[in-house]
Design brief:
9-stranded antiparallel β-sheet, 3-stranded antiparallel β-sheet, 19% helix, 28% strand, globular
Length: 313
């Protein structure tokens, strides 16, 4: 899949961003001398607007390296999950876009004039390169290809996590994860400006699609990789490895995916607000879910959100 855009964008996309991201991940793992930690982490916080008053650690000197600082936890009470909301924000960040997906088009609007294919985002079975039982996979609906229930529609929301944001993501609802798909891809920046320049950016980038069911039907949560994101972490999937030197490859090219099913004793049930995983730097979360046609979001594009606040009803 080639990157479309102006020549500066095509030149940017041709840079070895996966290698740069792995180098950045290695740099982040190096131990920072205690004497330099306050100055280094303080400079980063000032540059990107980190709120250090929220961190769980007693002081910044407790973080051995940049990686642990980026992936810091928050103190108890720093985020409150709305107990009355069925759907909450899965992370801190800025809402890039949200709305309803027209059933006939299966196109997700992103910014003015740009859309991307829902089928490409979630994956079609023909693009699976991993071994597994087709019988098991056909029991589920990981690509939202089955018809939605009468009176329902598919809805979407895209949240951008800036470098200064809290980098962990949480379950936006009570739901069951049936399938994980890991898509080979690039690691282009997902900053709002780049998103507006590159068609199909979320299809081109490496990503992980978690799909399953919630009270209204289909539900999917898609963490998308980006430049300098060391890796995408999913707490309940120890096999998952992202941003590795062997991806993409001739046997795992861009646009294809490996798949893992969670069945029987391995079934994964998540509760609203439960930590699911995180990024080793800022990135993007895409939600695609089935809900009543009259579902209304509590926010608009461009709004800044905090994890746990009501996303819609």
């Amino acid at each position: 899949m080639t990157v479309e855009g102006s020549w500066p964008i095509r030149v940017y996309a041709a840079l070895p961003l996966r290698e740069v991201s792995r180098a950045w991940g290695w740099l982040n793992s190096l131990t920072v001398p205690v004497a330099l930690r306050s100055t280094l982490y303080g400079a980063y916080s000032n540059a990107f607007g980190c709120n250090l008053d929220e961190m769980d650690a007693a002081n910044v000197e407790d973080f051995e390296n940049l990686g642990t600082f980026f992936y810091r936890t928050l103190k108890e009470g720093a985020r409150v999950v709305d107990a009355k909301a069925d759907l909450v924000c899965p992370s801190d960040g800025k809402i890039l876009c949200l709305g309803k997906i027209e059933n006939n088009s299966r196109q997700v609007p992103l910014v003015k004039g740009l859309t991307y294919s829902l089928d490409a985002l979630l994956g079609k079975r023909a693009n699976c390169v991993s071994d597994g039982s087709d019988t098991e996979r056909l029991k589920f609906n990981p690509d939202a290809s089955q018809a939605v229930k009468r009176g329902n529609s598919l809805h979407y929301c895209v949240i951008y996590l800036a470098p200064g944001d809290y980098h962990r993501f949480h379950s936006p609802a009570d739901w069951t994860v049936n399938t994980r798909r890991h898509f080979a891809g690039e690691l282009l920046s997902v900053s709002p400006w780049i998103v507006a320049q590159i068609r199909n950016l979320f299809i081109i980038n490496e990503r992980v699609s978690l799909s399953g069911q919630w009270k209204h039907g289909f539900f999917s949560m898609i963490p998308v990789g980006a430049t300098n994101v060391g890796s995408i972490i999913v707490n309940f999937d120890e096999e998952l490895r992202t941003n590795t030197p062997d991806i993409p490859s001739t046997t795992f090219p861009i646009g294809t995916y490996t798949e893992k099913s969670f069945t029987g004793k391995d079934q994964v049930s998540l509760t609203r607000g439960e930590e699911v995983g995180g990024f080793k730097l800022g990135s993007t979360i895409v939600l695609v879910f089935e809900a009543p046609e009259n579902f209304e979001f509590a926010y608009q594009g461009g709004d800044i959100v905090k994890m746990g606040t009501r996303l819609g009803k």
